[in-house]
Specification:
The complex is a heterodimer of chains A (about 200) and B (about 130).
Chain A: H1 10-14, H2 22-35, E1 40-48, E2 53-60, H3 67-72, H4 89-98, E3 104-109, E4 113-121, H5 133-143, E5 148-155, E6 158-163, H6 164-171, H7 179-200
Parallel strand pairs in A: 1-5
Antiparallel strand pairs in A: 1-2, 2-4, 3-4, 5-6
Chain B: H1 6-16, H2 20-24, E1 29-34, H3 37-42, H4 44-58, E2 63-68, E3 80-84, E4 90-92, H5 97-109, E5 118-121
Parallel strand pairs in B: 1-2
Antiparallel strand pairs in B: 1-3, 3-4, 4-5
The chains are: A alpha+beta (about 200), B alpha+beta (about 130).
Chain lengths: ~200, ~130
């Protein structure tokens, strides 16, 4: 266990290698959108063997960033939080993309929202696996039922779309975070991934 | 395009009709899992998944789970704060999915805080 003396800065630095797959990066970036008070967050993951690309796009309608803040977004020692002095979420995703001939970009407008795009060379030896994206979706939806999430997964021509705004309308009075609903969302994603594995293998 | 089918939704609606009202009427316990970059890197998602599984298994309608940001104690992540109605909140540190399940049984269901995993008794703000 890490010494409790290195409370802030060294905790996450010692643990960077634990951000093992892209689904954890996605959860981390989406948590930024939640912190930016987004009402709607869309997460798009596209995989293609033909173009040899994996792209991730996370966009929100949160508070966005001004020019000054955007300039600092890649700087690990810049953070909006007051509880510690390092912010590693965006730099870690940027690093993960650059390690496999990809890149990460941030588009943002103060008061309108932010979009983060990351691309990865699909067959690069250093590309992190997608990981447990179903758990990421379950945790985000269950923990933030008031936020509308759109998940768009695409592998070549196959796609899966889960839009909790639509889902909430269909469910009427049933809360979107009730265990049965979360389980179906998780199973739907996992089944789709299993069915479409052949596309990207 | 595969999507959630109408039958799935109908099934949920039938199962839930009798119970969903309770959920809206407030909750007895709230579990907040800290999901800053530090928490996620240390395994917070598995802890949150354990919470969701336990809520589902228990069938309880008066327990909610949510997430918050970094609490400034990155070295002790994953962390979770358990709030039981009319009791002071308890912060747990260095969690794993198994520890979280034990806390769920002992503290949330049983009403006895698990002192060996607790860091401090105090308040918590979520964003």
């Amino acid at each position: 266990m890490t010494s409790p003396l290195c409370l802030c800065a060294f905790g996450p630095l010692a643990q960077v290698n634990k951000m093992q797959d892209l689904s954890l990066h996605i959860l981390d970036i989406a948590e930024n959108s939640i912190a930016a008070r987004a009402g709607r967050i869309s997460i798009k993951i596209h995989e293609s063997k033909k173009t040899n690309l994996l792209t991730i796009e996370i966009s929100d309608d949160g508070m966005g960033m001004d020019d000054n803040m955007l300039q600092h977004a890649h700087d690990p020692f810049y953070t909006t939080r007051t509880t510690r002095k390092v912010g590693l979420g965006i730099p870690l995703l940027s690093q993960a993309a650059e390690h496999c001939h990809g890149q990460m970009t941030v588009e943002t407008e103060k008061g309108k929202g932010s979009t983060i795009k990351a691309s990865f060379q699909h067959d690069h030896i250093d590309r992190k696996p997608l990981g447990d994206i179903a758990s990421t979706a379950a945790v985000l939806i269950a923990g933030n039922p008031e936020i509308n999430f759109l998940f768009e997964l695409r592998r070549e021509d196959e796609d899966l779309i889960i839009d909790t705004e639509e889902l909430k309308n269909d469910l009427e009075d049933i809360p979107v975070n009730s265990p049965d609903v979360i389980k179906i969302i998780k199973d739907t994603i996992n089944d789709w991934l299993k069915q479409t594995n052949y596309v990207i293998e | 395009m595969p999507r959630l089918t109408i039958n799935d939704l109908k099934k949920i609606k039938e199962n839930q009709k009798s119970t969903f009202k309770l959920r809206e009427g407030g909750y007895r316990a709230k579990i907040t899992v800290h999901m800053g970059t530090c928490g996620i890197a240390a395994g917070a998602r598995e802890v949150m998944t354990a919470v969701l599984d336990e809520i589902s298994n228990s069938g309880a309608e008066d327990i909610i789970a949510t997430t918050s940001g970094c609490a400034g104690l990155c070295a002790r992540e994953p962390m979770a704060t358990v709030e039981i109605l009319n009791s002071p909140p308890v912060k747990y540190v260095d969690l794993t999915a198994d520890k979280m399940k034990e806390i769920f049984r002992e503290h949330i269901t049983g009403g006895n805080p698990v002192e060996k995993y607790a860091f401090v008794v105090g308040s918590e703000t979520t964003y």
